[in-house]
Amino acid sequence: MPGIHHVTAIAGDPLRNFDFYTRDLGLRFVKKTVNFDDPSTYHFYYGDETGRPGTILTFFPWAGAPAGRRGVGETHQTAFRVPLKSLGYWTQRFVEKGVSHQPLEKRFGEQVLPFTDPDGTALALVGVAGIESEPGWSNGDVPAEHAIRGFQGVTLLLDSAEKTAAILTDVFGFREAAREGSVIRYIAPGDANGSVVDIYEAKGFLRGHQGRGSVHHIAFRAADDAQQAEMAEKLVRTHGQHPTEQKDRNYFRSIYFREPGGVLFEIATDIPGFAVDEPVETLGRDLKLPKFLESYRKEIEGVLPVLEEAAS
Q: What's the DSSP call for residue 185?
């Protein structure tokens, strides 16, 4: 099933990030691990009950990280989907929780509630009719009927859509669906989570730079290693890209490349999933480390803040 696998962003204070996404947004804390390339830093995964592809927002929380700046060559906004009738609930919740948000607006005929997290990450809730029956994770505070159902998609801010669009359509299976002003909408077949990529053409805008509140990369789905290899071969042969060698991220296997507009793209396998090292019932409870870091567990745990402080 084509679409977005996960989105990874940069946060500041890890306790504040954990509190906002598990309490205020009511997402499940699916996995507590570390940045495999910087194990002194957490890597948080939030999503639905099992962490299905298309529901996962992940963070590298670097305490003291300087703020990023949104601009050309960056992800402009990440959007979740909720039942259309739930937008009133979420507007009221944002007021009560002091979540920075903007008035409801309409895009491509859909009702959209833009908001930001405490680090300034640009987010939105999109009201989608007919998804009430989709499973929704409840944290005991946000009722399951109003719960976030995963991603709607992302908006990329680029100088030009052409070369990026060619990769979206030829490699990832999206198709152009509509245009609205300077925004071109691409949709993956089916009605899966994470099936929308909007490209906002903004030639001449300032280039963005990454930091706290920025999206680090967007991961697209591959069913398995074979499909990922086919995508990589097409990227090289048809689009002049040079993806990395495959990296084992324990819960999926990944390759990376920087698409022509400047955004870091990943292709992540759907397998093996987040229950590979702990049961679904206790996802996110314990710190999980890859085998090559397990011998350093004591040192790693000694420098990471205790998350129970945020949940107490």
A: E
Task: Write the CA distances from 8 to 91, 95, 217, integer angstroms.
Answer: 25, 26, 5
Total domains in the fold of the chain: 1
10-residue mean pLDDT profile of the chain (312 residues): values are 95 96 97 94 96 96 93 97 97 98 97 98 97 89 95 97 98 97 95 92 92 97 97 98 97 98 97 96 96 96 79 36
Nearest to 44 by CA among 297, 263, 246, 216: 216
- The answer to whether the beta carbons of residues 77 and 154 sit under 8 Å apart is yes
Q: Which domain holds residue 89?
A: 4-311
Long-range contacts from 257-261, C-beta under 8 angstroms, 24+ separation: 259/163, 259/164, 259/167, 260/163, 260/164, 260/167, 261/72, 261/73, 261/156, 261/158, 261/159, 261/160, 261/161, 261/163, 261/164
> What's the CATH code of the domain at 43?
3.10.180.10
**Rounded to whole angstroms, how far apart are CA atoms 311 and 28?**
13
Question: What is the C-alpha separation between 122 and 125, in angstroms, rounded?
Answer: 11
